[in-house]
Amino acid sequence: MLTQEQNDELTRVGPGTPMGAVLRHYWYPVAFVRELEEFPVKKVRLLAENWALFKTADGYGIVHERCPHRGASMVYGIVEPDGLRCGYHGWKFDTGGNCVDILAEPDSSPKFRESCAIRSGQAQALGGMVWVYIGVDPAPQLPRYEAYVMDGVRDIGHSMLPCNWLQIMENSVDPYHVEALHGNYFEFVADQQGTPMPGSFGGNKHEKVAFDAFEHGIIKRRLLVGQSEEDDDWKIGHPLVFPYKMWVGGNGVYQMQIRVPIDDTNTWALFYTVHAPEGADIPDDSPCIDYEYQWIDENGEFIVDYIEGQDIMAWVTQGEIADRTSEKLTKSDVGVVACRRMFRDSIDAVKDGRDPVAVVREPHDVIKLPLERSKFGRGSEFAIDWIDNGSMRFSPQAEYMKKIHRDAGAARQAMAGT
Q: What's the confidence (pLDDT) of residue 200?
């Protein structure tokens, strides 16, 4: 149980808040590369602030939405080869936010233009998405986690959810919900609908769980009934990637679950999935597909007959910001407690002038994180079940992805036979 003050400290993300100061140490995906190719300016809301993201001939830029001249929106500006010009009066800003030209006063002094700078951040493309940093300099490195640079078929489901980002992140270190929500509840729903229960998600009874802090967050481990400590779920586990991601997968599916804090009560939740099963023949030019998954039906009811839909129901029904002042935690919530402790420690670190967890300063080619290769001890059945009974069911390439896994499984069998 937290006090209201403690809950506010952990959940509020706007400028000047303790958690907002922590979260401004990281890069966030805010758009798809294809969007800026279709139109070179996009409005972005991130950490309770509005921005204009744009693409120039040389790369990407992001500036605060309001022009410092008269406050018009820079989202409706003109993209030029080296910057963005306000559509209202033609004031031009480069990607660093410097005012470089005033249309009506071409002879304005450099000193005056310097005083007219607009707040800016940094923007880069990686893995089919445009990422931005809006914190103070020096900016950290954009982490090149394995998902964003590995070979495979990229599939990104996304939707805007009306709840605070922290209650989603706490779910990442709550393994028992897999047994209850994705097992018992899923079985109940399947029985009510008269549909079969997917074999990969039923019967996952926990014997024990563990949580280990590491340089990128918290590694979550589980031991299921019938497993040994040599099984991947315990020996390797998978991590909450601090502060807003989770790396999960197995059996040829690799997924970074991304929860972008738009503001205090809205989160852009993405399932960034790469399909790369052993033995698969995947073209080098496979496109990066993005689509919106559905989580609420035409009657306004939650769609709970798939894995992530069940999670979304649990996240959103806690309220816009979960009330942690009346919760009743037990020893099974040890992961949630560890998560909150890491966030509080990071608040203290930032107050002391130190980097919080998982800020990457060193240049690198790729960051590989722990991840089970055999999920729940299941084989390729797990990948097919996840596509059919997860948010990937809404993907326009769902059948293609299942074919990849089936063909790869057949190739592995053929190889084993030789």
A: 64
Query: Which spans in 194-241 are helix H?
Result: 232-235
pTM for the full predicted model: 0.95
Report CA 359 to chain centroid distance, whole Å.
16
Q: Are 77 and 85 in contact (CB under 8 A)?
A: yes
Instruction: Give the integer Cα–Cα distance in Å for 288 and 377.
Output: 29
Token look-up 């999670």 returns 311
- Nearest-angstrom CA–CA distance, 95 and 72: 18
CA torsion 88→91→94→99, rounded to 10°? -140
Q: Of all residues in the chain, what percent carry a pLDDT higher than 90?
A: 82
Higher pLDDT, 224 or 15: 15
Cβ–Cβ under 8 Å, residues 143 and 27: yes
For 254, the token pair is 């690799």
Domains of the chain: 34-133 (2.102.10.10), 146-417 (3.90.380)
pLDDT for 250: 83
Q: Give the model's confidence band at 379: pLDDT under 50 very low, under 70 low, under 90 confident, else very high.
A: low
Count CB neighbours of 7 within 10 A: 20
Angle between helix 398-417 and 381-388 (nearest 10): 170
CA 164, 62, 22, 138: dihedral to nearest 10 degrees? 170
